[in-house]
Q: What sequence folds into this?
């Protein structure tokens, strides 16, 4: 880190394994380690870490983040230049160096989209500081007075997701702006500690909680639209947040609510964690049952179709047998007719060569009607 700005490092271990604790102890020089006996979740852990700090500014960093050396000095300089900035976020890139968090926009239904300028993930295309709806918790600098004025992060967004969105929305409601400083950079792997299924379940569940709280604010946001033009319009909406004087300092009531959040009830936290995983187990079971029903329905449909094909096959076979019988009968009749014709031809041939046939031809012709000559042929 840049030594031009004095800083302290606080590592919060959330019900960490022995291996993680050992790694933390191996790097404990100049670091304050706060071990939590239970998993407080992301929001709860940040609150505990911030409460232990003494500085004017608080920097959120995830355990899978790698900050640029000048990250703190750039963020602090921007915060000092913008007295109404309650939070200043760094331009976050992934392991390939592509932009992953340039500040975010939030649609009316609570869905979030990265505020990519022109859809670009090239960090060189991000040069202007601008206001955003929210910034993620990897590389976001908070003003301590702003954090206190909203009574900290809400740890009911447990264990993760939407706590940072809710925090930024409450900061904005309190009169603070949330801005992006693209000159500050941090690399963040992101979503490495949870399975995709659990992550999707928790995010969907907490999105509903977030919507319930901020429904009136979200009415001024656009309907979700994946087109670049719609995203640009939402970016422009967020960026129009006007500069203003710094909001008033935290009230005694706001500080009191923050102290209540910092009072950890380990039993309640464990119950909360149990309830989340129990709900996820119910969700998985319901999905499995629905999938099983779908498979059963598909199998029944296929079996029905197989039965229909078997009926059609039987009918076709019967039709073919009847057709074959008819053909055999027709062949037999044709053979009989052919034999009769052959016999008739032989008889005619024999008759045509007999003398009685030749001498009686004129009598047959008289019987058939008048002819050119009534005289018998000689």
A:
């Amino acid at each position: 880190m840049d030594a031009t700005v004095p800083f302290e490092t606080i590592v919060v271990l959330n019900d960490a394994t022995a291996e993680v604790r050992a790694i933390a102890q191996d790097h404990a020089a100049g670091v304050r380690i706060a071990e939590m006996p239970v998993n407080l979740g992301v929001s709860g852990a940040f609150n505990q870490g911030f409460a232990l700090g003494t500085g004017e500014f608080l920097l959120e960093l995830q355990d899978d983040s790698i900050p640029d050396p000048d990250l703190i000095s750039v963020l602090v300089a921007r915060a000092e230049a913008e007295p109404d900035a309650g939070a200043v976020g760094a331009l976050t890139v992934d392991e390939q160096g592509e932009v992953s968090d340039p500040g975010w926009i939030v649609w009316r239904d609570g869905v979030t989209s990265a505020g990519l300028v022109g859809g670009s993930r090239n960090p060189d295309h991000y040069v202007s500081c601008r206001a955003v709806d929210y910034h993620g918790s990897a590389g976001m600098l908070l003003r301590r007075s702003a954090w206190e004025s909203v009574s900290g992060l809400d740890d009911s967004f447990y264990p993760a997701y939407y706590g940072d969105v809710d925090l930024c929305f409450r900061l904005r409601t309190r009169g603070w702006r949330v801005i992006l400083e693209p000159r500050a950079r941090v690399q963040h792997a992101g979503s490495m500690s949870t399975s995709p299924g659990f992550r999707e379940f928790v995010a969907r569940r907490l999105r509903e909680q977030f919507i319930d709280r901020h429904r009136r604010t979200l009415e001024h946001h656009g309907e979700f639209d994946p087109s670049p033009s719609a995203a640009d319009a939402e970016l422009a909406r967020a960026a129009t947040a006007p500069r203003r004087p710094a909001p008033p300092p935290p009230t005694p009531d706001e500080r009191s609510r923050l102290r209540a959040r910092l009072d950890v009830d380990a039993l309640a936290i464990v119950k909360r964690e149990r309830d989340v995983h129990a709900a996820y187990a119910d969700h998985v079971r319901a999905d499995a049952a629905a999938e099983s029903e779908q498979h059963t329905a598909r199998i029944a449909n296929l079996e029905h179709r197989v039965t229909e094909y078997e009926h059609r096959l039987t009918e076709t076979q019967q039709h073919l047998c009847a057709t074959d019988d008819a053909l055999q009968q027709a062949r037999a009749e044709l053979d009989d007719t052919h034999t009769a014709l052959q016999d008739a031809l032989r008889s005619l041939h024999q008759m045509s060569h007999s003398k009685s046939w030749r001498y009686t031809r004129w009598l047959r012709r008289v019987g058939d009607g008048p002819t050119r000559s009534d005289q018998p042929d000689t």
In short: The first strand starts at residue 9 and ends at 14. Residues 91 and 185 are 5 Å apart (CA to CA). Residues 371-378 have pLDDT under 50 and may be disordered.
